[in-house]
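User: I'll paste a sequence; please echo it back and then give the predicted structure.

Assistant: Echoing your sequence first, then the prediction.
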Amino acid sequence: MKNTKTPNRFRRNVVSMAAELKQVKDCLVSQEQFFVNKTLSRKEKKTKIKNMEREICKLHKTLEDRNCQLEASSSAATKVLTLTYPFVF
């Protein structure tokens, strides 16, 4: 007498395992895509930070230059006022 339950059970197990394997593969693909997106986002943020740092350096240099100009102008104005109104200073 042949047992027909065993081959059917085996097929069901194979089908079940194949479905589970597909779910795991899909999950891995999804995770991989998530990490790719996260990596790209991180690279974009690093680039943005570097650009902002460069801009801050430029602004700092401009501020230093203007401060020097103001100090020179203030010094010149003080000299003119001292020479023009010597008794006030």
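Residues 1-63 form one domain. Residues 26 and 32 are 10 Å apart (CA to CA).
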